[in-house]
């Protein structure tokens, strides 16, 4: 194997990001020791509730904000140690697709100038023929080159956003909820379009979504985030077929089932996620966990335990912890009496 091909396009290690609360009343840790790796040409999904830190991670990877600490390696180069000029050059290899397609486009520019911006920035041809070729790639008529964003539908605006992202042939695209604002029928078209670019151009994706069905279709691997941390990671089908972390189990149980036979018992988590400025001690999920096994969950931060070809961060997978606290476990604690209930999925 070519060493360049074996080097991940993205390798995030021990990444943290804190924000000061308005008024100077402390800090919020949006990311807490995150590890993510995206192999060349692959797609890694990132799922979790709103506020889990997904978009913060996306913006750091895209270079829009800086991390507080940790390492980001892009194509094997330490992004944090690069000069501003070298970071701009490397930026050609990392592009972003945003959640709101219309808001991500400059309303004062025609489509041809929106697509031309990254080409001009990186010294590439932005001729009319090149713009027309890119429009063809995303399935838009060439006459749209002179249209403005307000003249386009949401799906067409997202295609323009995709055209802008692929114009410079990046090696990594960070897609932050790229289809959540679109109609279901348009979502399928956009996902197939992005999948085609992955297969034809070898583009890798960090694909962020709260929709497990979308991630299951698009990504080969998935990382599950909760309160700024990765709590489970692995091959997508394996994680969704047999989730190991209680939080992943709850997310998977809430995903719509196409066939009646596939319906699972719904796990309803009680309460809301803890405030980021006041994270709980021990396991960050213990205040809502339906499988809490005792004081160890409240007091001790769990380690990452191998699960399949990935891992999950949970005391349930630690045989030593389970043995130590077996005598303290009860039926009520295993069923999640204080923090969760089950109900049949409608």
From TrEMBL:
GO-annotated biological processes: peptide transport; transmembrane transport
Keyword annotations of the record: ATP-binding, Nucleotide-binding, Transport
Domain of life the protein comes from: Bacteria
Pfam families named among the record's database cross-references: ABC_tran, oligo_HPY
Ranges where the record places region Disordered: 324-346
Domain ABC transporter: 10-252
Annotated PROSITE patterns: ABC_TRANSPORTER_1 (PS00211), ABC_TRANSPORTER_2 (PS50893)
SUPFAM superfamilies: P-loop containing nucleoside triphosphate hydrolases (SSF52540)
GO molecular function, one term: ATP hydrolysis activity
Family label: Belongs to the ABC transporter superfamily.
The protein's name: ABC transporter ATP-binding protein
Organism: Phytoactinopolyspora alkaliphila
């Amino acid at each position: 194997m070519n060493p360049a091909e074996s080097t991940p396009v993205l390798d995030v290690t021990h990444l943290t990001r804190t924000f000061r609360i308005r008024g100077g009343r402390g800090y919020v840790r949006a990311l807490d020791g995150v590890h993510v790796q995206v192999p060349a040409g692959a797609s890694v999904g990132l799922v979790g509730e709103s506020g889990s830190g997904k978009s913060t991670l996306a913006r750091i990877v895209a270079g829009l904000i800086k991390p507080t600490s940790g390492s980001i390696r892009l194509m094997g180069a330490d992004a944090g140690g690069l000069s501003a000029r070298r970071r701009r050059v490397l930026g050609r290899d990392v592009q972003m697709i945003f959640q709101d397609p219309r808001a991500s486009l400059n309303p004062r520019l025609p489509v041809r100038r929106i697509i031309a911006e990254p080409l001009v920035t990186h010294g590439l041809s932005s001729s009319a023929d090149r713009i027309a070729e890119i429009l063809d790639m995303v399935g838009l008529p060439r006459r749209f080159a002179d249209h403005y964003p307000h003249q386009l539908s949401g799906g067409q605006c997202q295609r323009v956003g995709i055209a802008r992202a692929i114009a410079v042939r990046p090696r990594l695209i960070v897609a932050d909820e790229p289809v959540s604002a679109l109609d279901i029928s348009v979502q399928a078209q956009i996902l197939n379009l992005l999948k085609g670019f992955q297969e034809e151009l070898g583009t890798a994706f960090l694909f962020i979504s709260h929709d497990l069905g979308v991630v299951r279709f698009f990504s080969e691997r998935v990382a599950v985030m909760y309160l700024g941390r990765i709590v489970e990671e692995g091959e997508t089908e394996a994680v969704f077929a047999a989730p190991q972390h209680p939080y992943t189990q709850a997310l998977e149980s809430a995903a719509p089932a196409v066939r009646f036979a596939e319906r699972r018992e719904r796990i309803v988590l009680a309460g809301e996620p803890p405030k980021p400025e006041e994270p709980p001690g021990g396991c960050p999920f213990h205040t809502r966990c339906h499988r809490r096994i005792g004081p160890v969950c409240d007091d001790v931060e769990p380690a990452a335990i191998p699960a399949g070809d990935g891992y999950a961060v949970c005391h349930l997978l630690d045989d030593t912890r389970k043995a130590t606290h077996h005598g303290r476990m009860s039926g009520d604690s295993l069923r999640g009496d204080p923090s969760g209930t089950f109900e049949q999925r409608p």
